Every structure is written in C-alpha cells, then in structure tokens.
Amino acid sequence: xxxxxxxxxxxxxxxxxxxxxxxxxxxxxxxxxxxxxxxxxxxxxxxxxxxxxxxxxxxxxxxxxxxxxxxxxxxxxxxxxxxxxxxxxxxxxxxxxxxxxxxxxxxxxxxxxxxxxxxxxxxxxxxxxxxxxxxxxxxxxxxxxxxxxxxxxxxxxxxxxxxxxxxxxxxxxxxxxxxxxxxxxxxxxxxxxxxxxxxxxxxxxxxxxxxxxxxxxxxxxxxxxxxxxxxxxxxxxxxxxxxx
Length: 244
Known about the structure:
The chain is α/β, with parallel strands linked by helices. Helices cover 31% and strands 16% of the residues.
C-alpha cells in the first residue's frame, strides 16, 4: 500500500504586507477532497504540521465568504469531523523521515505562506523526496511550501540560490486569482511571482478553472477547483510506479 504524507499548515493567521494579522488556516475543500480521493484509492495518508500543532481550518472555506455552497460546507465539516483524531494530533514535521513515504502532498489556504514557506523541516523533507525521485504534490497556495526547499523562503531579498525546484514546471494559485478573489495587494508576497523569481516555470490556466501540471515527479494544482484532479493525478502516478 502506498503511503502519503499530507503536510498541512498550522498557521491560524497570515501577516499581511502592512504587518497586520489576517485570520487564515488550511482550505477545507483542498484537505477534504484530496484526503478522500487518496484514501478511496487505498492509499494510507498521514497528516503532519510544523511542530505537530493542531491545524486551523480557514473559516471562510466553510461558508459563502469563500464562495462555498452550504451543502458543500456541510459535507466538508462532516469529513473534517471524521479526521478529528488525526487533526488533533498530527505528526511533527521534525519527526518525519522522507524514506517512510511514497509522496508528500501539500494542500493550500493562505496558511502555507505564513509557516510552510519558511519551515526548515519541510525543506529537508521536500529536498530528500525530490532527490529520491518520489512524488512531490502541492495544491493552490500549497506550492508556497516548496519555497522552503533550500532556503527559498519568500522573504524580500532572498535570491533563491539553490532552490530545489528551479527550472521545474508547476502551477499555483495565480496572481490573477489572488487579486480577483484572494487578499489582493494585501498579501506579503504573490506566490506565483515568487516562484517565477526563483526560476520555476509557472503555468497557469483561466482563473477558477481546474488545472494540473505534472512535471515528472512534481504534480501541482492551481486552485480549489483543481482538488479532485490533482489528487487523482497523484493516484495515477503512484499506480504507474507500482506503489498504489
């Protein structure tokens, strides 16, 4: 049976460009749909966060503020309730070994911009996973997490020297989407632009439409609408490798 490490942000706020704190967390649909698709395919999924802290769901990912229909929100809440044990006591990234997993999967929400982008333990895991040729997957704002690989933290003045994913094709919540339905110019940095600056080859599709980019072992999805397709692509990639 294949085994995936789902890395979830433990941040409950994002420090905006003006220094104020904006409530955030992980995006419900991205965790729920991804987890559901992966486990229904028979894959074992562990959840890990920085420090083993219990993650916080972004409240707007469960109501109309996040353009989430009431029926969908109800289903997401019910599924998250079924994961309550894992979410209450996730693994700590510092205690995780890359060799124990066939893939690392990072869902989004604005939370990853706050903690995962700077997390040295995640950087270690991603670097080891990439170098072993195992699957690295990230969704929506989740690719902010790959900034952690080799110190590319997203901070102003960081040149991105040694960025593990430089030259790789990927997608991410686009700058257009951030301006249309995200936090706009209030964000501390635009993840798409930051990845481009570091040498990643970013490919984005129309705003709010599903798009998945697979570049060898690197699989990324653009937005919440890409949740199903991203997880399914990971399942297919594992099957092709004989892991699922």
